[in-house]
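Example record for the data management plan.
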Amino acid sequence: MAGFLNPLDAAIGDAETTYGLGPGLVNPKSRNNAPGLGLDPIALNAKEPGTYAAMTPEEFEAFKQKQAASSPGHTRPFTAGLEAGAIGAGTMTGNFAQALGVKFNNQALYDAGKAVQDASARGSKGLEPRVGSVADVHSFSDAWDYIKFQTGNAIGSSAPSVVTGVLATFVTSNPILGMAAGAAAPSYIQNTGEMYGTLRDSPGIAEQVKAGKLTPSQIVDYSMVAGVPLAALDIAGQIETLGLSKVLGGATIGALKKSITGRFVNSVIRGATAEAGTEGMQQIIQESVAEVLGDKTPASQRVINVLDSAIGGLLGGGAMSGGAHAIQG
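Corresponding structural encoding:
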C-alpha cells in the first residue's frame, strides 16, 4: 500500500506502451521488451516468424506512421470520436473512483479506479485522431477530419449524462428539473474525474506535492469543489441543447415556429451556441484551477485547450440539438 496515495502514480498500460499503434510493435521503452534486445526499436521479423529484427530510427518512424495511418482514428474520424468520447467517460469515472480511494484511504476503491483507467486505455488504442487540435489544422482536409472527430467525441462523452437526464424527464412533471436531477450524478462524476486527472497528471503540481505544499487529499478536495460548477454548466448546456427550455417557454420561439426549416436551423444554432459557451467556460475553470495549484502549461496552450473545448461543444451541441429536434418533430 505504500505510496498508493501519490496522485502521480499511474500504471503503464498496453495503450501507453504501444501508443495505440496496433499489434506487432514492441515499444523500445516498454518494460515488456524481448529479453536481451536492449533499447533499440524492434518489431516482429516478417522473414523469420517468432524472431525480432532491429530497425533504424527512420524505419521505426515510418513503421509507426504506416500503422497510425490505418488506425480507426485516421480512417473513420467521426465514429472513432464517438468511441473515444464514450471510453473517455469511462476514464473519468475511473479517475473519480481513484480520487475517492485517495480521499478515504481506501485501497480497493483506488485499485478499482485504476483498473477502469487501464481498461479504457486499452479500449482507446487506435482511436487517436489524425488532427487532434485546432492548432494542427493546416488544410481543408485537416479541418474536415478535425470537425468529424470533435463532433463524435462531444456526443460520445455526453452520452451518460444525457441518457440518464432524458430518462428522468419521463417521470417528472417539469422536464427541466427532471433533466437536471437525472444528469446530476453522472455529470458530477465525469467532471470531477476529469478535473482530478488533470491535476494528478500535471508535472507542475507534482512538484508542489513533492515540496510538501500540496497533499494528494487536497488535490481531491479541489477537484470535488470544482466539479460542482463544471457539472452545473454541463447540465445547463444539455438542457438548452435538447430544447427542453422551450417546453416551459414556448412563446419565446416566435416566428421561427412557422417554418419547419427555420425551427430546425434555430434548434441547431441554439444547441451549438449553448454547448460552445458551457464547454469553453468549463475548460477555463479547469485551466484556472490547475494554474493556481502550480500547473505550468504555457498560456498559449491553455488558449488552444479552451478553443478545442468550445469548438467541440459547438459541433457536438449543434448535432445533438438538431437530432433532438428531429425526434421531437
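Summary line stored alongside the record: The first helix runs from residue 14 to 18.
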